[in-house]
User: Which sequence fits this backbone?
């Protein structure tokens, strides 16, 4: 298989950069190298940010109506190229084509929300707040903002960030994951085709060197990050120490509580989809099922049956429901954690460790895995596995289930399956988690709301996209004004001014 060069996008065009380091990009389903990624150096970082700063100064002055025209055109282009974007995602990430297309669709929701920015940015006005004095407020862009995005959603997460940043008047620099970088270049081309001025959206590939450069460079005003908790904490602490505004979304260990009064077939169907979809490589994946009382035995049996029926293979093949994990290291890690759980007393109900997909023997595959009788001291419970593993924890009551959820250091997403409105209300009011689903296993908010967790799942004050996204990428101004007649007395006083 021939590999292709994957370059940066700087100043409105593909740019090989000055850095001499390269990194292989793999097709996880075959194990073959599909591309050679150019990693940027400090020279590339400087050029990119200088270009972004100049572009931001000009873009901020462009009228809202002209900005929205670009956003609407970009929305049309992304929609028209959904299949092409999905194919790029599947080739480098491994998720099935339908899942990849769904990722693009969820990203488009944020683009559509950004198209409504003139309404959101209207500001407020108070007439005659004091005699002859009016006060109004409005929001302005920050300048140059950067997005550091993860491998699991190479289109959706950049679309959580860039459309709002750009619509509000900023220039945006994307540092995508090195594992599946090509979709970012497709987005860059679509932005250009939509009429976005050169330099307003740029892609700079790199590793730790570029990340730290973005966190510390004086030309960067804000950083958006999605990834693991240790790196999110580093991004937040380093960025804020260097005067940046930072929103950093970290890891997760999402629980779904299943009560005995739940529709157990519905719960099993949705738990399986939430645990094994995209090979479990979602920050909102359900990785722990908390089975309450009599629900446990039936739930484990039903989830086990569904796990065994899932078709695993190359995401481009018809009928395949789950693809590979992203790297051999991820594959080894999943196997290691399942083995440790088994050694520590967990029951392996469904075992995906030894799965081999015929014709793809070198692919990075792990089959759906269900562990029962999991304890909170096991690595299968403590670690964010980021693989197709569902751990079942058994408790006696809803109160016990809430304690389990709240004791976990993460607070990203959670769900409850029940037929009781009272139980659901008790749960949603008492769990210390940022996003909650009631009979909905993956409660990713629609674009009109904001995405973000609590505790070790979020560093910073702002959640992603929605109203919080608008606030993050802008800062407010308040103007107090008086227009006296020229022959009026000034009424100036040395006293602190009071309204009246």
Assistant:
């Amino acid at each position: 298989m021939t590999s292709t060069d994957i370059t940066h996008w700087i100043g409105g065009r593909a740019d090989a950069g000055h850095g001499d380091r390269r990194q292989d990009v793999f097709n996880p389903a075959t194990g073959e190298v599909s591309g050679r990624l150019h990693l940027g150096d400090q020279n590339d970082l400087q050029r990119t940010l200088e270009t972004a700063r100049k572009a931001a100064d000009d873009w901020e002055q462009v009228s809202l109506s002209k900005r929205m025209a670009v956003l609407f055109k970009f929305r049309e282009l992304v929609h028209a190229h959904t299949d092409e974007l999905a194919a790029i995602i599947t080739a480098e990430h491994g998720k099935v084509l339908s899942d990849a297309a769904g990722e693009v669709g969820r990203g488009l929701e944020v683009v559509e929300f950004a198209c409504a920015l003139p309404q959101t940015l209207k500001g407020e006005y108070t007439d005659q707040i004091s005699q002859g004095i009016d006060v109004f407020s409005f929001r302005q862009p920050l300048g140059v903002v950067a997005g550091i995005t993860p491998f699991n959603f190479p289109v959706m997460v950049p679309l959580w960030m860039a459309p709002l940043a750009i619509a509000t008047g900023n220039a945006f620099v994307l540092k995508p994951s090195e594992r599946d970088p090509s979709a970012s270049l497709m987005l860059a081309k679509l932005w250009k085709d939509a009429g976005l001025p050169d330099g307003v959206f740029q892609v700079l590939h790199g590793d730790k060197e570029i990340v730290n450069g973005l966190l510390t460079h004086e030309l960067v005003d804000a950083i958006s990050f999605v990834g693991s908790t240790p790196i999110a904490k580093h991004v937040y602490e380093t960025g804020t120490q260097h005067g940046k505004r930072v929103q950093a979304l970290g890891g997760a260990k999402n629980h779904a509580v299943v009560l005995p009064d739940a529709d157990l077939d519905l719960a099993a169907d949705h738990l399986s989809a939430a645990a094994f979809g995209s090979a479990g490589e979602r920050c909102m994946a359900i990785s722990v099922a908390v089975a309450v009382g009599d629900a446990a035995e039936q739930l484990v049996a039903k989830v086990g049956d569904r796990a065994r029926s899932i078709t695993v293979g190359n995401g481009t093949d018809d009928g395949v429901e789950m693809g590979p994990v992203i790297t051999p290291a991820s594959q080894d890690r999943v196997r290691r954690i399942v083995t440790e759980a088994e050694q520590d007393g967990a029951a392996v109900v469904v075992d995906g460790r030894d799965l081999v997909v015929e014709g793809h023997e070198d692919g990075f595959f792990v089959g759906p895995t269900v562990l029962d009788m999991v304890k909170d001291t096991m690595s299968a419970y403590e670690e964010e596995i980021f693989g197709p593993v569902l751990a079942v924890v058994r408790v006696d009551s809803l109160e016990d289930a809430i304690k389990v959820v709240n004791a976990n250091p993460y607070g990203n997403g959670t769900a409850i399956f029940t037929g009781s409105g009272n139980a659901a209300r008790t749960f949603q009011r008492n769990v210390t988690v940022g996003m909650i689903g009631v009979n909905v296993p993956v409660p990713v908010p629609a674009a009109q709301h904001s995405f973000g967790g609590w505790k070790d799942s979020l560093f910073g004050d702002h959640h992603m996209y929605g109203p919080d996204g608008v606030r993050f990428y802008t800062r407010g101004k308040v103007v107090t004004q008086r227009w006296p007649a020229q022959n009026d007395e000034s009424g100036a006083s040395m006293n602190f001014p009071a309204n009246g």
